[in-house]
Design goal:
Elements (H helix, E strand, L loop, with lengths): L14 H27 L4 H16 L2 H4 L1 H22 L9 H53 L2 H22 L3 H30 L4 H18 L2 E6 L4 E6 L2 E7 L21 E9 L9 E4 L4 H12 L14 E3 L13 E2 L2 H7 L8 E5 L9
Parallel strand pairs: 1-8, 6-7
Antiparallel strand pairs: 1-2, 2-3, 4-5, 4-8, 5-6
Helix pairs in contact: 2-4, 2-5, 4-5, 5-6, 5-7, 6-7
Length: about 375
């Protein structure tokens, strides 16, 4: 029984039970709120930023600044704006952060950077292909032009082709370093110099088709071939312009050999010491074997003949050679040639193997006609 006026003793509840429950409810509410805020404000657009950075790296490797300057400059600016906006939001408190603008800018930066990388890569591929083609074209054309230049024997053309070789080397070196614009420019410079050289060579070739000596060359070749047709003996024709020695019997070409000429190149011999190969109709006066000449084998020619002596006298009377000058002698067809350059003192030089092939075809008295060039319409 309860006594009147006396309250029952209070029920003592455990303190920890109430506090823990309150904290759990509060913490759950706070996390829910913060979670909601976090979802509402977004996250830094790292994926788009990373893709944009990677694309700009690829563009840099493809020299995008040089190859797609405006496009890549705009992409770099877009990426910088996006990164700046992310940093601005990162510095704000969690409740005030808003990455929406950063996400928009990052997406724009990604598109711009990928466009920059694609354009730079495509331009790099096109430039590489052009540079490769220019190098290949120049490398293929140079040997042909060098052969023509050797026929001309012009020192200016030799210098032109040397510059072409230098340009080709620069183009190849730049290509190996992936500097394709520089490679293409060097190859184009070489091609322009080569075109200049070839144009000059063609002019010289054309001059031989209209040379006043052309009539003599044609007459000499016709007479030589006519003599072969009458006697059945082989004859030798030397074409200085083409640097060729041809062996004919009647209308048949028996052999053709490349030759080296005198240092004077295409000049016709005028006097002793001019290092030019004479032009005219000659005969073999002696056949010398390996132990009889310094130049392996030799076919001695009857230079100067009567026509050479008469011409030399006319030149002296005209004052074109000094009265102290001599006409020269000892013109041969000999070995130790095959050098692909003019180096003799006026002789015609063949490779030793070609001399071995030539000598059995001829004898003392064989006709040898040397001309500036053989008109193509004359040969059978």
């Amino acid at each position: 029984m309860t006594r009147a006026g006396v309250l029952p003793p209070p029920t003592i509840l455990p303190r920890t039970s109430f506090v823990s429950s309150s904290r759990v409810r509060f913490t759950g509410l706070a996390l829910a709120l913060l979670g909601g805020l976090g979802f509402a404000c977004g996250r830094p657009p790292q994926d788009d930023l990373e893709v944009a950075r990677s694309a700009m790296t690829r563009a840099g490797e493809a020299q995008g600044v040089e190859r797609a300057h405006d496009l890549c400059a705009a992409a770099r600016s877009a990426l910088l704006r996006a990164e700046t906006e992310v940093r601005v939001q990162d510095r704000r408190s969690a409740l005030r952060r808003d990455y929406d603008e950063a996400a928009r800018l990052a997406f724009q930066a990604r598109l711009a950077a990928e466009s920059c990388a694609f354009q730079a890569g495509a331009m790099r591929a096109r430039t590489r292909a052009r540079a490769r083609a220019a190098i290949d074209d120049l490398a293929a054309a140079l040997p042909r032009a060098s052969t023509l230049a050797r026929h001309v024997g012009d020192s200016d053309r030799v210098d032109d082709l040397l510059q072409v070789e230098i340009a080709l080397g620069e183009a190849r070196s730049a290509f190996d370093r992936s500097q394709f614009e520089r490679s293409e420019a060097a190859a184009e410079r070489g091609r322009a110099r080569l075109a200049q050289a070839v144009a000059a060579i063609n002019l010289l070739f054309d001059s031989y088709t209209t040379s006043p000596r052309r009539a003599d060359w044609g007459r000499w070749v016709k007479e030589t071939l006519r003599d072969s047709g009458r006697t059945g003996e082989p004859v030798i024709l030397v074409d200085k312009l083409r640097r060729e020695l041809l062996v004919y019997r009647r209308q048949d070409e028996l052999a053709i050999y490349p030759v080296d000429l005198g240092i004077g190149g295409m000049n016709s011999k005028v006097r002793a010491g001019d290092d030019a190969t004479p032009e005219g109709r000659y005969r073999i006066t002696e056949v010398r074997g390996p132990s009889q000449t310094h130049y392996y084998r030799a076919l001695m020619l009857d230079y100067p003949n009567a026509e050479d002596l008469a011409r030399f006298k006319r030149l002296k009377r005209a004052g074109r050679v000094s009265r102290r000058d001599d006409i020269g002698s000892l013109i041969e067809i000999h070995g130790h040639g095959g050098r692909s350059q003019d180096w003799t003192k006026g002789c015609v030089a063949l490779d030793n193997d070609d001399m071995d092939d030539l000598v059995p075809r001829v004898r003392v008295g064989t006709a040898v006609t040397i001309v500036g060039t053989i008109p193509v319409e004359i040969l059978p």
